[in-house]
Design a protein that fits this description.
Length: 708
């Protein structure tokens, strides 16, 4: 059987040994499990992809189309679905997972774990234990030229980081446009039997549906998620049946369009107009990136089965039926979906389409929450509130700020564009750009990590880069027609992420340069001005192998220190999850009651320690430390535990310094802009302590200025 290692935090070695002790599953039971998972993926992973027939043809600005034009368009969509959907994502990209997680951040994570470009990684972290999630991490002397170049060139590192950030931002942009275009295109079906229904009514109903959907997000998706798969299953199995009926009735020879020569003739006949129409055909593959990004929710085999056995043939037949109908009704392309639905099943299909659009919207909204959470844990995004809405599913999260911003933007998109056809102009921008970004990062992963020969890597990179590059050039012509909106949103989000990351790194550099050596801590605390007071203090420290200069400022100001002081460093790693045995590393600093504690968190880990849970984890980790470093286990453990318990009874306080940059006239312009923007973001985001579930009465914050 296939063993998924690390999905629940175990290291590869542990996971493999554990797997050997388990009874081996039969092929039938393994297939049955994957088949059930494949069915469940319909409601989570493929929402945007399977609803694309609603808006692909309406998004094309066709003028006096002919039979040959439709055959060429169908050929383009078939080969786009086959090459990008099947070859690129199903056969290649799904293999580039990071500990079971997918998406652009997973690709960047893989690179950071194999070459030294991840500035968030601490050089003092035990790479053998923490980075063991990727078997066979490359030693320095075995890295190829590209890996060495990236390690030495800070500009190249920032370019790769910005590319990865842009991919995440494009996915968030997808979360804004998918709800708008899916729901609006579905509701527009009312205008078929009721032409008197105005555009304003359709917009109003679409906004009402979206407002209800966004307002229900705070309750989580668990209560209604059992409906997702049946809804998407109904949609996936009914649309190809109608497509088969339509192609047999109107144009049985439609599959002759699978010959690529129809594509060549299409461009020779339409020239620049045909190139511009690519901005609409690319929408047939929208949602393909979600297959990769949602890899962490399901295993690779289940996604491959769901796509190849249901989604892919469903889309091929549905588009074939739509095209066959349009060949016999050349000017009905403005409503390419509902027009080809037979009258007898029109209203059932309208209901199914509307429900499918809602599920598709939900899947992209949830994905946006997950991406924001990952970015937040990696310290690439200003702090927002993250709420876990399920006790059983750690990945089910909700962010109020993100939710309401998405809601407002979706409403604005509908009011600005008015119908699904115009939104398609904007939609194509984010769809193709995130795919192009994945192609670039995946090629780098191939060369550096997979050690793919450069010729073979180019056989992947060149065709897909050219294909997606041509699509990109086509959708860029739509920027004046509304495509600038998602592009602008993504650029703003990328600027926010990059500025936040740059500001955090500059702070870290200052603290590393001005840190208090641990060897000097005893001398600093032995001065008569410093008094030891009862209680336990968790002092949050951003660096390892030293103490933040904020602590020196704190001592000068307060002139006291708690009898038990634990310097806590939260280390966010570019892995999905950290093994529970490696999560907390604690050691004594040679001074009574003073400890150093490093807490490692992956981007899929929860970092909320409410009640006594945090204290218990610290105590248990301290016991392990004493057992490993002391010969008199019981006496030392009893003494340390007694000291901790007494200090806890006297009171617990969490101290966090809040540093700002002093931007002077001598500061360079680049720093003035980025650090000034960072100061603005930092001053308006949430504090780190409330996000960890620490009670208000236990929190202490103080400020200090850092020189630039």
């Amino acid at each position: 059987m296939d063993v998924e290692v690390g999905g629940d935090g175990e290291s590869p070695a542990t996971g493999k040994c554990f797997a050997r002790c388990l009874p081996r599953e039969t092929s039938n039971s393994s297939f049955r499990r994957d088949f059930i998972l494949a069915y469940k993926t319909l409601g989570v992973v493929f929402g945007g992809l399977v609803t694309s027939p609603l808006y692909v043809y309406p998004s094309m600005n066709l003028e006096s189309p002919t039979e040959e034009d439709y055959l060429g368009i169908y050929s383009i969509m078939f080969w786009t679905l086959t090459l990008i959907g099947v070859v690129k994502y199903i056969c290649i990209a799904l293999n580039a997972d990071d500990n079971g997680e997918g998406g652009t951040f997973a690709l960047y994570s893989l690179l950071c774990k194999h070459i030294n470009i991840g500035s968030l990684q601490s050089k003092s972290v035990n790479s053998r234990t923490i980075f063991s999630y990727s078997d066979g991490a490359l030693a320095t002397e075995t890295r190829n030229k590209l890996g060495k170049f990236l390690e030495k060139n800070i500009i190249a590192q920032r370019i790769v980081l910005f590319i990865a950030m842009s991919g995440v931002c494009m996915l968030i942009g997808d979360g804004i446009l998918t709800p708008a275009i899916s729901v609006l295109s579905a509701i527009e079906g009312l205008r078929g039997p009721f032409p008197s229904v105005s555009k304003v009514v359709v917009e109003g109903l679409s906004i009402a549906v979206l407002l209800a959907l966004f307002l229900l997000q705070k309750h989580g998706t668990s209560r209604v998620s059992f409906l997702f798969s049946p809804i998407m299953g109904a949609w996936t199995f009914t649309t190809p049946i109608i497509g088969l009926y339509s192609l047999l009735k109107y144009y049985p020879s439609i599959f002759k369009a699978l010959s690529p020569h129809y594509i060549v003739h299409f461009f020779l006949r339409n020239k620049s107009k045909g190139w511009q129409l690519l901005g609409g055909t690319i929408l047939c593959i929208t949602g393909a990136e979600a297959m990769f990004a949602d890899l962490g929710h399901f295993n690779k085999r289940s996604i491959q089965m769901a796509f190849l056995l249901t989604i892919y043939p469903s889309l091929i037949l549905t588009y074939a039926g739509q095209t066959a109908y349009l060949i016999r009704h050349l000017n009905d392309h403005s409503d390419g979906f509902y027009k080809f639905v037979p009258n007898g099943v029109y209203w059932p299909m309208f209901i199914i389409a509307t429900l499918a659009a809602i599920v598709a919207s939900q899947s992209l909204i949830s994905a946006s929450f997950s991406v924001i959470k990952q970015s937040l844990l990696l310290d690439y995004f200003p702090r927002v509130r993250i709420i876990h809405t399920s006790q059983n599913k750690e990945g089910e999260v909700y962010s109020p700020e993100t939710n309401y911003i998405l809601m407002v933007l979706c409403v604005v998109i509908i009011l600005y564009f008015g119908d699904g056809k115009d939104i398609g102009n904007a939609f194509g921008v984010v769809v193709i750009l995130v795919m192009l970004i994945t192609t670039i990062l995946l090629t780098i992963v191939m060369i550096i990590i997979w050690r793919t020969p450069i010729i073979i890597a180019m056989l992947y990179f060149v065709p897909f880069f050219i294909m997606e590059g041509v699509y990109t050039s086509a959708v860029f012509t739509k920027i004046p027609q509304g495509g600038w909106i998602p592009f602008a949103i993504s650029i703003i989000l990328a600027a926010v992420m990059f500025s936040w990351h740059y500001g955090r790194q500059r702070k870290l550099e200052y603290e590393m340069k001005n840190k208090i050596p641990i060897d000097c801590l005893d001398e600093l605390l032995s001065t008569p001005e410093i008094q030891r007071v009862a209680g336990i203090c968790f002092f949050y420290n951003k660096i390892e192998d030293g103490i933040t200069p904020l602590f020196g400022h704190y001592l000068k100001t307060m002139r006291s220190l708690h009898k038990v002081t634990i310097f806590v460093t939260l280390r966010y790693l570019l892995v999905a999850k950290v093994d529970s045995n490696e999560r907390i590393i604690i050691r004594k600093l040679g001074i009574d009651g003073v400890y150093e504690c490093v807490i490692h968190c992956g981007f899929a880990d929860s970092i909320a320690w409410e009640g006594d849970h945090f204290f218990i984890e610290i105590r248990d980790s301290l016991e392990k430390h004493i057992k490993m470093n002391s010969g008199e286990f019981s006496r030392h453990i009893e003494e340390e535990n007694s000291e901790l318990e007494n200090a806890k009874k006297d009171g617990v306080v969490h101290v966090r310094g809040k540093a700002n940059f002093h931007i002077s006239k001598s500061t360079i312009l680049f720093d003035k802009i980025l650090l000034g923007f960072y100061q603005f973001l930092h001053g308006n985001c949430r504090s780190a302590l409330p996000n960890m579930g620490i009670p208000l009465h236990q929190r202490v914050e103080f400020g200090m200025l850092y020189e630039t």
